[in-house]
Amino acid sequence: MDKGPVPSDGDVSMQAGILATTIVVTILADTVVALRFVVRKWIVKNIGWDDWCILGAVIGITIGMALVIVQISYGFGRHKYYLTPHELQEFQKYSFGEWIQTFATLMWTKISICLFLLRITISKAFIRPLQVAIIILVLSNVILTVLWAVQCSPVALAWDLTQQGTCFSVAQIDDIILAQAIISIVSDFFLAAFPILILRHVQINIRVKIGLCLLMGMGVITGCICIARAVLNWQNDYSQDPTWVSVPNWYLRSWEICVGIIAASVPTLRPGYLYMQDRLVASFSSKASSSAPFSKSKTLVPSPVARTKASNPFKSFGTNTSSTTEGNFLPLQNFEIRKTTDIDVEKKSNSRSTSGAYRPRIGRTDSEAHLRSVEDIV
Fold first, then answer.
1. Could you tell me the pTM of the whole model?
2. Has residue 294 got a pLDDT over 70?
């Protein structure tokens, strides 16, 4: 094995930082998704395909942490010059697998966002692009994963240089990584812009609308990280000292995955935040009323809405276990708002009826139903 020149900085190590980072990003992602499932299961009471996809992403980042810890034990974060041939071979083998995990985890994260957006819109103008985006994400990542897996023949030649065979050139392997980065960048900015289009006509407070767009548009951050990763990958030559030179790229890749999972999950936590806020307000109000001196003029009579919330704290979120729509994404502007049903009265046109009887027609238009579902979303 050609160890190359002696590193000028000696046998230094970045392993402590790598280990701390992989544990932190994994715990952050796992915690946010766990909270997401708590909200969906016990408050919204509606777990959908977007939740199962983000669970796949969390499983992926957890597997990635395990692979990185193994890589550290074989010299990841140290200069190649100080590693044995066996350590370098094992590092390259687990790095090979970690890239496959990266492709899959990013794919599941973006598909989860697409499915989430599909739950809050009924317009075909929005549904079709999201469906196409899902198809493109699946096909492109499957193709790139297969190309990555067969970069060498036999496959083991990708990490075991003692075997005989052929491999893609370094430039071709870089092209696979660059293609994946381009797809990630485009999809991140595309999905970050979608909430603005969906929410622009929704009748809610402008500050709330801006806040929701910012929360749902956090994909811009992952897009920027991915741009930095792609530039770094294009500028550096990893073949000379892969265990050392690839560390900055790995940092960006790890945070890209972590921030992506958080961006996909944070908007779904709003019902939990509102629920806890209501419980705290109710608790403080109860303490204040119990400590106040008894007086007829100061007796606090709870409103019908407050009594409804006290008897069923989940009802204020518009929970419907049989509903297929996302529950409670957008907040109502006023907690005192009552749900109403419009009743149109139309004259019977039946020729057999001569009494001019009228019959009620109960129903809502698609736009009204969409507004109601959007109000119940976060």
1. 0.77
2. no
